[in-house]
């Protein structure tokens, strides 16, 4: 699939594509149940898509939709004006809202549209403190997502500020139009029947997942010309996931739209060697670029970044688990999103353009029985715990990934950036 740049979508075309996109999000992404609550978070830049999703949700039989709007300029004012202590706690009512939404079985939908550099220059300790506080106060909410109790879905909406970073040579309105087209293509909304296209997409993942899951690799070795030479231990009961997800009570949904990755949770105690970034990492509106991390026994012991090193160090210091791995993901170098030739500066897209790793929290559903385990059982099974989960891209055109079995046998998984 490639992204064909047609002429701009006119207002009517955009409205009808938004309706088609919203219908896909609600029916395939959230797989909403009749009478179910939908909890939708969006920024004020995504009002049109939020309205379209609310309409589609009621058409699909949702019982009620709660919309939680935020505004990037106002968030920036908080960071510029409030002391660090303010971010170290979450207002009681906010935690209550999130936790009770999870308890009542709401579908959790988030629309991302942020300007990648909106928070440039803020004190990195503030968003980290806020993530940490939310992780504690909203534990019931995050557990509902991590342990497969509620369906959840993250999608993107174009905004002028984000689009202007992606297409700096275009006017804001042309850039936004172009970004919408890229989003519609990457999420298969351009297909005649996007819901059927996503069902086919789900099935396409199954064969590769079966192959990886049948082999039970003990570790993976990553090497490339950037200088990466890293060995990552996998968990003996580890599971590769990708495509779609299923709740503990059997409801299928898509946590991310788009998605092109197959991923698992590595053993947070076993990573050794050095890994180089292949794409810039945009985190909390800050840019970290040209960096490397050196791991010893699972932990980052040394790092360097040509740009954004302070933010990188702040991330690694959030808590005990933030300097350890929570995810390894395989994405071929010629994925449809990479082939579009667009750097989105948004993890939802860029993580589907490159093999990546994530520091921070691991996925309980990537070890057998993990969704029924408590925190200490998950740790024993090798699943990392942290308030953060941050992806960074390591896949380039000559990345090799070798799977190593417990008896030392080596099997090529990726050669020159693609499936071997
Ligand atoms: Zn990922």
Through-space gap between termini: 21 Å
Biggest beta sheet summary: 9 strands, antiparallel
Give the overall pLDDT as a whole number: 94
* Each distinct ligand: zinc ion
Poorly predicted ranges = none
Count of DSSP strands: 20
How would you sum up this structure, described in words?
It is globular and about 60 Å long. Helix content is 34%, strand content 26%. The protein contains 13 helices and 20 strands. It has two domains: 11-197, Thermophilic metalloprotease-like (3-Layer(aba) Sandwich), CATH 3.40.1830.10; 208-242 and 259-419, no CATH class. A hairpin with a 5-residue loop joins strand 8 (245-246) and strand 9 (252-253). The chain is α+β, with helices and mostly antiparallel strands and 420 residues long. Strands 5, 6, 11, 12, 13, 14, 18, 19 and 20 form a nine-stranded antiparallel sheet that branches. A five-stranded antiparallel sheet has the order 7-10-15-16-17, with helices on one face. Strands 2-1-3-4 form a four-stranded parallel sheet. The longest helix is centred in the middle third of the chain and has 22 residues, at 194-215. The structure holds zinc ion.
């Amino acid at each position: 699939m490639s992204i064909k740049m047609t002429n701009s979508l006119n207002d009517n075309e955009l409205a009808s594509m938004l309706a088609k996109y919203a219908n896909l999000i609600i029916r395939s992404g959230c797989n909403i149940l009749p009478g179910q609550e939908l909890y939708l978070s969006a920024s004020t830049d995504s009002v049109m898509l939020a309205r379209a999703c609310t309409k589609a949700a009621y058409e699909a039989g949702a019982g009620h939709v709660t919309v939680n709007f935020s505004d990037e300029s106002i968030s920036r004012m908080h960071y510029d004006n409030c002391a660090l202590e303010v971010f170290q706690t979450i207002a009681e009512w906010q935690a209550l809202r999130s936790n009770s939404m999870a308890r009542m079985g709401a579908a959790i939908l988030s629309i991302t549209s942020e300007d990648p550099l909106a928070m440039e220059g803020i004190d990195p300790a503030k968003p980290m403190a806020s993530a940490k506080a939310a992780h504690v106060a909203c534990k019931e909410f995050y557990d509902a997502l991590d342990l497969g109790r509620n369906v959840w879905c993250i999608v993107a909406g174009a905004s002028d500020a984000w689009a202007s970073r992606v297409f700096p040579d275009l006017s804001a309105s042309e850039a936004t139009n172009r970004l919408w087209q890229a989003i519609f293509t990457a999420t298969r909304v351009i297909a005649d029947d996007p819901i059927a296209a996503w069902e086919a997409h789900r099935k396409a993942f199954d064969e590769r997942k079966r192959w990886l899951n049948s082999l039970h690799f003990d570790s993976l070795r990553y090497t490339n010309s950037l200088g990466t030479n890293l060995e990552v231990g996998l968990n003996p009961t580890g599971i590769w996931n990708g495509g779609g997800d299923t709740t503990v009570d059997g409801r299928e949904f898509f946590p991310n739209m788009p998605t092109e990755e197959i991923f698992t949770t590595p053993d947070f105690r076993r990573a050794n060697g050095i890994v180089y970034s292949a794409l810039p990492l945009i985190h909390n509106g800050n840019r970290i670029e040209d960096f490397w991390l050196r791991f010893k026994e699972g932990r980052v012991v040394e790092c360097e970044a040509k740009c954004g090193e302070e933010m990188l160090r702040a991330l690694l210091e959030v808590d005990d688990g933030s300097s350890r791995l929570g995810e390894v993901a395989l994405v071929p170098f010629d994925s449809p999103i990479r082939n579009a030739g667009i750097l989105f500066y948004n993890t939802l897209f860029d993580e589907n353009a490159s093999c990546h790793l994530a520091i921070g929290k691991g996925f309980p559903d990537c070890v057998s029985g993990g969704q029924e385990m408590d925190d200490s059982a998950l740790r024993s099974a090798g699943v990392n715990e942290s308030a953060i989960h941050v992806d960074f891209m390591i896949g380039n055109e000559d990345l090799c990934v070798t799977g190593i079995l417990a008896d030392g046998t080596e099997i090529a998984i990726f050669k020159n950036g693609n499936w071997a």
